[in-house]
Amino acid sequence: MKKRRSIIGDVLYAKVGISFWGGIDPLNGMVIDQTHPLLGQCITDKILCIPSGRGSCTGSQVMLELLLNGKGPKAIILRDADSILCTGAIIAEEFFMDECPWIPVISAVGKDHFDNLDTSSSLTITEVEHDDDVDGETRVEIVMGDEKLTTRNLLKLKDTLHQRGKLQVDASINGSSEATVAALRTVKRVASISNATELLPITCAHIDAVTFIGQGGLRFAKKLVEMGGRVSVPTTLNSQSVDRRRWEILGVDAGLATNANAVGDAYLQLGCQVSFTCAPYLLPTKPGFGENIMWGESNAVVYSNSVLGARTEKYADYFDICAAIIGKVPNIGVHLDSNRRPKIILDATNIIQELVLPNMGESLLDSDVDSFFPVMGWLCGYLSDGHIPLILGFDLLSNNITQDNLKAFCAAYGTTGSAPLFHVAHITPEARTSSDLESMIDGCIQGHLEITADQLRIAYTSLDGGARQTNNDDTSSSQVDLIALGNPHLSVTELQQLAAMISSDNRPKNNDVRVIVTLSRYIESKGEELGYIQQLKKFGVEFINDTCWCMLLDPPIIPKQANANILTNSGKYAHYGPALTSRNLRFASLRDCVESAKSGRLRSGNMARPQWLRSFSTNRVLSILKRVK
Q: What is the DSSP track for 356-425?
């Protein structure tokens, strides 16, 4: 054997995973996730130790930009293997090797060894290349004081698609375009991380990598076009970074618009459809139960698996287009029956009985229970700790749960959870019958966790983080500047509900408040046919297509003033928004958003929380948060 390179570096350790997108600034390597214990730390040239990534599929894009900017870590030591983070580094090696000053070692060491890293201030890591029969796989030696651990570099693994000496891929790849060959090579490397043995054909794809967050992603897409790339299955596009048709009217910077549209144009040249939505499950082309698909965008992945019963891993940006080009994905994760089983029970029965049921109104117009679903989704993602959960208690609400409630739940769950799937007893398609549930419960080896009211209220306070930044004596702190709706993109039924709430009385929109909705072109056209768009425009609602709130980062769309208050009913935007916009994000029900649009004010004190939380004091929540931190 021969040693390749040794790394000595300071350790940044956290017991909580982090989404590189929305959590780390690709320009300087700073942690910007305001809920994360490493907030304010810089990962550049450090040895980053985290359980896994979490949240957005765009973490791979951030990884590529970090490496191209020379701001990446020296190494990443994970508890669990994470293909999203690895994909960004793989793309850097495959497409930009000559331009990256450093490609980090990425290893997964398991729970016990990871927990031992907690006391390490620095580590020595040595890559070792063997000359024996390990098929070129690179080993990694990690020295922690007197202890030495040998593991693998996830970026340098043997090809697991070789089985009994035969390559388990479609022979028609031979003679294909340069892009197809490179895409297959990338897919094979990612497949090896999960020990995949074959590739599965997919029926459709959804590309998350269409956002512009740096020149690396744009150059990657253009390279695929130049190499003759073309998708081989029906492929939709996620939200890009600007409204392609209205960016100039909206006052978007011309440089950003040029780059953002160039990314979109490149993917259209690759054969993708003009969809540009973060909610592809609202399109008529949504997949059916049991279909193997390749979807990027975290909320869409969770929704397709959990609510539709289709099958997709939470695939990384860049991997998504590679898989769409070859039309195949690895036989890994939740594509397989055995990996769709829940491992932990999250029991919400008591809190639904105690907090939610007593506050159900006769209709949505007189209830704020819709805010329960994103809060609960955020909490379940956090508590599941990387495992697929079976969630109990929602059958008590079965007559009231809507597809929009599940959409909000999925989006928030995707911000804190790393598993791409959850099951809800008697609600989601794979957990509807008693026999389904019996076998699921028997397999939940991680235990039965009863969700408490304290946990739920802490989750709400975390999402309504802007409330902690306001000064009750400051009049401006109760003023709302922007109401941001549509993350994920609004559905037709949500347009209907919004129109009904606005017309519940004759009060106009406050002139000092902007109300902006993001939605797909398809849904907007349907809303126009039904008259909802016209009604909402008359009230003063503005509409943006092709992009969504997680990409709308700058004035004039978000308020210019640094102390501005943005109000949203989206758990996803409430989670990511503070770090992305540097503004105060407030979270509320749709009903309260409409009320603030008319009054121009945020609710304050006990009234700032939904009815199902008002019996709990803010001071108690804040004291619990301090103890948790």
A: IGGG--SSGGG--GGGHHHHHHHHHHHHHTTSPEEEESGGGGTTT--HHHHHHHHHHHHHH--SS--EET
- How far apart (Å, rounded) are the C-alpha atoms in residues 253 and 603? 34
d(Cα 487, Cα 503) in Å, to the nearest integer?
Answer: 23
C-alpha span between 249 and 482 (Å, rounded): 18
Indicate the helix (H) or strand (E) that contains 48.
Answer: strand 47-50
Instruction: Note whether 162 and 32 are within 8 A (CB).
Output: no
Is the distance from CB of 75 to CB of 125 less than 8 angstroms? yes
Q: In the prediction, which pLDDT does 174 show? A: 54
Hey, what are 336's tokens? 């397989």
**Per-residue CA distances from 77 to 32, 153, 348, 451 (Å):** 20, 10, 34, 31
Report DSSP state, residue 492: H
| Cα separation, 295 vs 268, whole angstroms | 17
pTM, two decimals, is 0.90
Residues (pLDDT < 50) of the chain are 133, 164-168, 170-171, 473, 617-619, 621-622, 628-629
Cβ neighbourhood burial of 565 (10 Å; 0-12, 13-18, 19+): buried
Q: Beta 2-13 vs 122-129: how paired, if at all?
A: antiparallel
pLDDT 10s digits, 413-433: 999 998 999 999 999 999 999
Q: Quote the pLDDT of residue 2.
A: 64
Bridge partner residues of 568 (DSSP):
484, 587
- pLDDT at residue number 185: 95
Tell me how far apart the alpha carbons of residues 474 and 453 are, in angstroms, rounded to a whole number.
31
DSSP H or E stretch at residue 623? helix 618-628
The continuous run of DSSP H or E covering 524 comes out as helix 521-529
Q: Which of 586, 424, 572, 406 is nearest to 494 (CA)?
A: 406
Q: Are 73 and 43 in contact (CB under 8 A)?
A: yes
155 in Cβ contact with 127 (< 8 Å): no
Residue 164, pLDDT score: 40
Nearest to 371 by CA among 613, 34, 33, 621: 613
What pLDDT does 108 receive? 96
**Integer Cα distance of 19 and 33 in angstroms:** 8
Sign of CA dihedral 493, 497, 502, 506: positive
Q: What is the pLDDT of residue 625?
A: 53
Q: For residue 273, what are the CA distances in angstroms to 200, 223, 286?
A: 22, 19, 13
Q: Which residues are tagged catalytic?
A: 56
Among residues 323, 337, 344, which one has the least CA distance to residue 418?
Answer: 344
Q: Helix (H, G, I), strand (E, B), or coil: what is residue 35?
A: coil
Strand partners for 75: 47, 105
